[in-house]
Amino acid sequence: MGEDSFSIYIIFILIIFLFIRRVYKSKLIFIYMIIGIVGKPNVGKSAFFRSLTLADVESGNFPFTTIDANSAIGYVKARDPALDFNNHSTPRDGFVIGDYRFIPIEIIDVAGLVPGASEGKGLGNKFLDDLRQADALIHVIDLSGGTNEKGESIEINSYDPAEDIKFLETELNNWFFNVISKHWKNIEKKIRGADLKIEEALVTVVSGLNVSEKQIKIVIDTLNLTKENLKENLFELSKKLREVSKSIIIAANKCDLLIEDDLWKVKIEKLEKEFPEYKIIPVISEYEFNLKKAHESKLINYIPGESEFEIIDNDKLNENQQNGLNIISNNIKKIGGTGVQDSLNYAVFNLLEMKPIYPGGLKKIEGKKENVIVDCFLMKKNATALDFAYRLHTDFGKNFIKAIDVKTKQMIGKNHVLKFGDVIEIVSGK
Prior knowledge:
It is a single chain. The protein is an alpha/beta fold. It has 4 domains: 1-29; 30-161 and 247-350, Rossmann fold (3-Layer(aba) Sandwich); 174-243, Orthogonal Bundle (Helicase, Ruva Protein, domain 3); 354-428, Beta-grasp domain (Ubiquitin-like (UB roll)), CATH 3.10.20.30. 39% of the residues lie in helices and 17% in strands. The protein has 14 helices and 14 strands. The strands form 3 sheets. Strands 1, 2, 3, 4, 5, 6 and 7 form a 7-stranded mixed sheet that branches. α6 packs across α7. The longest helix is centred in the first third of the chain and has 25 residues, at 3-27. It is flat and about 80 Å long.
């Protein structure tokens, strides 16, 4: 094979891969969204990502440990629906621990952000480009105040973590504004020359930022924008589009450095008063990673997101391990867990308002030990039985007759809004 032929072959394979991934993400059972992990360097962002996914990524106490975006699978936690049938699920994807089912979600950890990223400073351009497809963001900050604005280690409590929340907002808003401003002449031409609606003209520009036409229309109506006042309100438009398409939760990391005198609680309360619009969760990401690895090694029984764990056999632990687990146990009881699982759950179930819906029939659940509620679909909060039928297969939607709530054994109509954790059987004409 010649050099030119080989290059064409590689390009062809790449195109096929990207096409398959796009189709897969639009129809798949579990990876229906992407959660981005963001933050400046050295705040424990990669450690947080690693604790969520157990992915083998480099983390270190110096700026820009992460240069290329890392992608892996994390898991949101929900009550196992099979418990209602005195059973346990056997997921096709994900797993069950105790009474909880863990549902796969794609997570990306992007290069660290520094002030001026929207102008290309640091790894800003790469950082922002990697974030385009994210549906929601978990912003990891160093609550201990031991990392300055450049991502350099400094003495604990010598930097205000509130500044990180402010600068991330600024950079993301400026990023959206720069993208829209760059294409303003083209947008204006479409609005006036082609006489398109504002949302129709904007969607071709911001769709690459994972903003839908529906979201644009909501923002336009909220801000009372018209073709006449659009230009003068361009920044406010950009800001609101960022807010609806890139919702943020704050993961206040390194709480273990603030355990004494409950200083972590004081700092969390201060941030909550300053930023009431954000959910702020206390986090110790290193603890979560250590607990998961200990669970994997069958040293402890640990359910992610819980504030307690059980040591299986003390004799298998050396003195350092026993001391370490005792410290972790005491500290996570104080803050209510490591906060890592809570952060992901909040991003998916609260920010994005998704709900797990399970396909199944009563005869396929009761009395079985295998192939019990194998699939899970994450649906939007207002999803109906008909929406779910289409999600399963287009033919199910087109030929929809009825649906059955398997838990209650009641028939439901196509416009019935499904509840969090429903198990639904679809009956179609074919």
